[in-house]
Design a protein that fits this description.
This protein is mostly helical. It has helices at about 1-35, 40, 60, 65-75, 90-105, 115-120; strands at about 75-80, 80-85. Helix 4 crosses helix 6 and helix 5 (about 90-105) packs across helix 6. The protein binds heme C. Heme C binds next to helix 2, helix 3, helix 4, strand 1 and strand 2.
Length: about 120
């Protein structure tokens, strides 16, 4: 009788650990966002009209991941102004976490980004 109970417990623990692993990545992304991005894009991702673009419900943020990664790495000068590049300030892990956060925070639901994807875009 003990064996199945033990297996069930291990299975439950494994499930909890997996869920926590995903939660940790999102939490790290949120911390990077609040430290480095929220001053312009706002904690709620809404930006400021005509000054800082909203990232919530933004089709660019939800679309192909590599242009989003490239924008965060290199920064951008456009109609609204200039965003600094983050390639020298944030490592691949931090950029993957923050881009995953952008794609999954607020109302956004898009696939996560891995550090390997950031490294590949950085190398281009
Ligand atoms: C000093 C203000 C500022 C900070 C800090 C900042 N951004 Fe930006 N960001 C901008 C501006 C301004 C633009 C738009 C530039 C343009 O195209 O006119 C922008 C554009 C973007 C875009 C593209 C949005 C689109 O619709 O094309 C993304 C994605 C983005 N920022 C993510 C980030 C992330 C992630 C961080 C933190 C690591 C960050 N930003 C920090 C000002 C900022």
């Amino acid at each position: 009788m003990k064996g199945p109970v033990l297996l069930l417990c291990l299975g439950l623990l494994g499930g909890v650990a997996l869920a926590q692993g995903q939660g940790d990545a999102l939490q790290r992304g949120q911390a990077v966002f609040e430290d480095h991005c929220a001053q312009c894009h706002r904690t709620n991702g809404a930006g400021l009209p005509a000054t800082f673009p909203a990232l919530n419900k933004n089709p660019f943020v939800l679309g192909e991941p590599s242009p989003v990664i490239a924008t965060v790495l290199k920064g951008r000068k456009g109609n609204l102004g200039r965003m600094p590049g983050w390639k020298d300030k944030l490592d691949d892990q931090q950029i993957a976490a923050v881009v995953t956060y952008l794609r999954q925070a607020w109302s956004n639901r898009a696939a996560p980004v891995t550090p390997a994807m950031v490294a590949a875009t950085r190398g281009k």
